[in-house]
Design goal:
With 630 residues, the chain is α+β, with helices and mostly antiparallel strands. It has 16 helices and 18 strands. Strand 1 and strand 2 form a beta hairpin. Keywords: ATP-binding, Cell inner membrane, Cell membrane, Coiled coil, Kinase, Membrane, Nucleotide-binding, Phosphoprotein, Transferase, Transmembrane, Transmembrane helix, Two-component regulatory system.
């Protein structure tokens, strides 16, 4: 670009530097910009692909182990039937009585295990008993000797088979085991398991994955359109063999054909699909496909990771690289051509630094404000927790006061219950001394036994009062029958004053509430019923209960009293509201009972039967059923 001033040049040579600068240099810069952009795209795509492969390997291992775990959950179940005596008796002597017993046993086993079906085959492949013996599509009497799992199991090998049922057309995973009796195989136990939960789990996780079996058929997939397609070409012999086995019922088993496949490593491929297979897409879509074989089974688990976002990001990085180089070239030319531009750039940089400093100061101020707000929120949370603790303690004290009030109301009956045994104790003890002096040991012994029985009775009364008066927690576990017995014991004095017909119609249950609190609720409800029936001659009290399908238990305490007045019904659960005279009630029994039921996760409500009287409905959660060994 430097011109020599000492020797004149011919006119054609004097225009060459200008031509290079005006024409060749922009073309060269354009080529370099495109080269930097393409290089940035390739580098970003390679790094992103490696990252996706590493991330995909972790997800592949995680979800593959989930599939293996789901498969191995039921492997023990077919062999479990070998321990059941009724199964062996049915296989040896297939009478209707034995078949009925095994049908009921398999029905219960299937329900507890959560499988699709459990059935028993004889050595000829005919179903002798099944868990769905009551259904219209029962397997009972069906000939399944053509199934591969039966042929494997009857020869002493574990049968593992995924197929579509020939009766219901429902897919499932079959596990078969040969049952041995007297040293030889006398039948085959089969468990059918549905594995749709894995597909639902993948759909919720937005995971694109599928499982292919030993025949290369996709049997599980997060995309329903891929199910029962072949991942590899099937020969005519394979299609005929699969059609004859009815493993996949009458499905066409179309081939799954990606547009292109490029191996990237062991078990890793890049595949693409035509746009017609994906709604809303006008370009072929590419995926990173990673495959891993599952343990203890010839199945393969495949994970598909979309590459569209990766390539979009790589394209962005390439554009940034090209723009960066172009900017660098522009700055270099500008610095070489004009120093003023450099000064302007320096001034702009200084202004940018000032703006950055101002922005940092504003960020610091905002951070301080946020810290102050956060501290204020923490103080509010602490105050609210303290208020909740205070409210809970007040509620506990109110509950305890209600207990003591109930005990105070029952003090007369309790004194009467204790005075009678005390008077009898005094009489019997005096008589025992006289009989001992006269040498009548047998009469004295019977008196002492009567004294012991009265002391036990007094002890039960005082023990019930101590248990009713002690403090308790919101949660725990309670036995319904024990709580009813304890409440009846506490109210024994009132129940003995005026005859009451007590009807009990409830199955015993384990409830998720403290035993003492359940007793207190029952004492309040039964005492209210006794007060409502008053002095009427016919006094009937019903305790009726049943389990509900939502994991709760419903207990109804119903009386045949005159009922609750219409104007008082909407105020029943309000504190200090009562229809009793002031000396008989504080108006806290129903309020505290409803509060205790709510604290345990239940509820207390009232109903008014058409036959008359009042019915209080207590809903409480049941304890989770404990698993019992099969």
């Amino acid at each position: 670009m430097l011109q020599c001033a000492s020797s004149p040049l011919p006119p054609p040579l004097t225009v060459k530097p200008r031509l290079v600068r005006n024409y060749l240099l922009p073309f060269l810069l354009l080529l370099l910009t495109l080269g930097f952009g393409y290089g940035g795209y390739l580098i970003s795509e390679g790094a992103g692909t490696r990252t996706l492969i590493e991330t995909g390997e972790r997800q592949l291992e995680l979800h593959a182990r989930g599939v293996e775990s789901e498969i191995s959950r039921y492997t023990y179940l077919p062999s479990l039937l070998e321990l059941e005596g009724s199964v062996s008796r049915l296989l040896v002597d297939p009478t209707p009585l034995h078949r009925d017993r095994v049908n009921h046993y398999l029905e219960g086993l299937n329900r507890r295990a959560g499988s699709r079906a459990v059935y028993l085959l004889d050595t000829s492949g005919r179903v002798l008993a099944t868990s769905n013996w009551q259904d219209a599509d029962s397997y009972l009497g069906e000939d399944l000797s053509f199934r591969a799992y039966f042929q494997e199991a009857v020869n002493g090998r574990p049968g593992r088979f995924y197929g579509i049922g020939s009766t219901t057309g429902e897919p499932g995973y079959y596990l078969a085991h040969g049952l041995v009796h007297g040293g030889k195989i006398v039948g085959v136990a089969v468990v059918k398991v549905r594995m749709e939960s894995l597909e639902e789990r993948w759909e919720k996780a937005r995971l694109q994955a599928f499982v292919s079996d030993e025949n290369g058929i996709i049997i599980l997939s997060s995309d329903p359109t891929l199910r029962l397609k072949a991942v590899r070409p099937l020969s005519d012999q394979d299609k005929e063999r699969l059609a004859r086995s009815l493993q996949y019922y009458w499905w066409a088993l179309n081939e799954w054909q990606p547009l292109s496949r490029h191996p990237l490593g062991d078990g890793v491929e890049e595949i693409s699909f035509p746009p017609g297979e994906h709604a809303g897409s006008h370009k072929p879509l590419s995926y990173l496909m990673q495959t891993r074989q599952l343990s203890d089974t010839p199945w393969n688990f495949t994970l598909l990771t979309p590459l569209a976002d990766l390539r979009r990001e790589a394209l962005m990085h390439g554009v940034l690289a090209a723009v960066g180089f172009a900017l660098f070239a522009f700055l270099l030319i500008a610095w070489n051509e004009r120093r003023k531009v450099i000064a302007t750039r320096l001034a702009a940089r200084e202004a940018l630094e000032q703006a950055n400093n101002a922005l940092e100061r504003r960020i610091a101020e905002r951070t301080a404000d946020l810290r102050a707000s956060n501290q204020h929120l923490r103080e509010q949370i602490r105050e609210r927790r303290q208020a909740e603790d205070t409210l809970r303690k007040a509620q506990d004290r109110l509950v305890q006061a209600s207990k003591l009030a109930v005990i105070g109301q029952m003090s007369t009956s309790i004194a009467h219950e204790l005075n009678q045994p005390l008077a009898a104790l005094r009489t019997l003890s005096s008589n025992s001394v006289r009989f001992l002096e006269r040498g009548k040991l047998d009469v004295a012994s019977s008196n002492l036994e009567a004294i012991a029985e009265m002391v036990d009775r007094m002890g039960r009364i005082t023990a019930s009062l101590r248990a009713f008066a002690r403090r308790a927690d919101d949660h725990g576990q309670a036995t319904l029958s024990k709580a009813v017995d304890a409440a009846v014991m506490v109210l024994q004095g009132r129940l003995s004053e005026v005859p009451v017909a007590l009807h009990r119609d409830y199955p015993d249950a384990q409830l998720a509430i403290d035993q003492t609190r359940l007793e207190q609720i029952l004492v309040n409800l039964i005492a209210n019923a006794l007060d409502a029936m008053g002095p009427q001659l016919d006094r009937q009290l019903w305790l009726e209960g049943r389990s509900e399908g939502d994991g709760h238990y419903r207990l109804v305490v119903r009386d045949n009293g005159p009922g609750i007045p219409q104007d008082a019904r909407q105020h029943l659960f309000e504190p200090f509201f009562t229809t009793k005279p002031g000396e008989l009630g504080l108006g806290l029994g129903l309020t505290l009972s409803a509060s205790l039921a709510t604290a345990a996760g239940g509820s207390l409500s009232v109903a008014y039967p058409e036959a008359g009287g009042t019915a209080f409905e207590l809903h409480l959660p049941l304890l989770p059923a404990m698993e019992t060994p099969a």
